[in-house]
Write a structure and sequence with these properties.
Blueprint: E1 2-6, E2 9-13, H1 17-32, E3 69-71, E4 74-80, E5 86-92, H2 94-110, H3 116-134, H4 140-158, H5 169-178
Antiparallel strand pairs: 1-2, 3-4, 4-5
Helix pairs in contact: 2-4, 3-4
Length: 193
């Protein structure tokens, strides 16, 4: 068994499923002694085993999914490394990505009449903050998707500032070449396990 703790979140890894089930029955009693409880919807046993690996065959076909789990805004899943070995990969959880885009959309709507240079400056800060948290190894595609969706939402709300002065894509593309938003980038190299 191994225990990984992140602030008030923990992941317990057990080699055998029966150990995990026993732990799930004993842990609430142990925590109850100290006045603590487990969140009923967030506490679960998830089968997260490495998919079968054939040493002589380095096929990149995916067998049946081995299970995923979300922790700290990332979905953890099994994937192949560049060498063809099975590794745990992480990407931005779908719920977190959609929540962030909803907030960006609301922010762009609420501030559409502010000066465009100020909006640009604020969006640069927001993107850099997103990259600082979610910029880990293997998550570059999700970061690029987030940037693209931010650009689309910003252009949409800039186009609704007035019924006369629309921000067409050509004009907006010229503006982005002069004042670009930061490109998606990896900030943390996480070890592949």
């Amino acid at each position: 068994m191994a225990l990984y703790r992140y602030a008030d979140d923990i992941v317990m890894v057990c080699a055998l499923e029966r150990d995990a089930q026993r732990l799930l029955t004993v842990l609430p009693q142990r925590l109850g002694k100290y006045g603590l409880t487990l969140h009923p919807t967030k506490t679960q046993v998830t089968r997260f085993t490495r998919p079968p690996y054939h040493a002589h065959s380095r096929r990149h076909t995916q067998p049946t999914p081995a299970g995923t789990f979300d922790l700290l805004g990332f979905t953890h899943y099994w994937g192949r490394s560049r060498q063809g070995n099975w590794v745990v990969k992480r990407q931005t959880a779908t719920a977190r990505l959609s929540r962030a885009l909803t907030r960006i959309n609301a922010w762009c709507r609420d501030h559409r009449h502010a000066p465009v240079s100020w909006q640009h400056q604020q969006l640069v800060h927001k993107l850099r903050g997103h990259y600082a948290y979610y910029g880990i190894t293997g998550n570059l595609d999700a970061l690029r998707l987030f940037r693209l969706q931010v650009i689309r939402r910003w252009r949409k709300w800039l186009g609704r500032r007035s019924h006369r002065a629309r921000w067409r894509w050509e004009r907006f593309a010229r503006f982005l070449t002069r004042s670009p938003l930061p490109q998606a980038m990896m900030r943390h190299a996480t070890p592949v396990t």
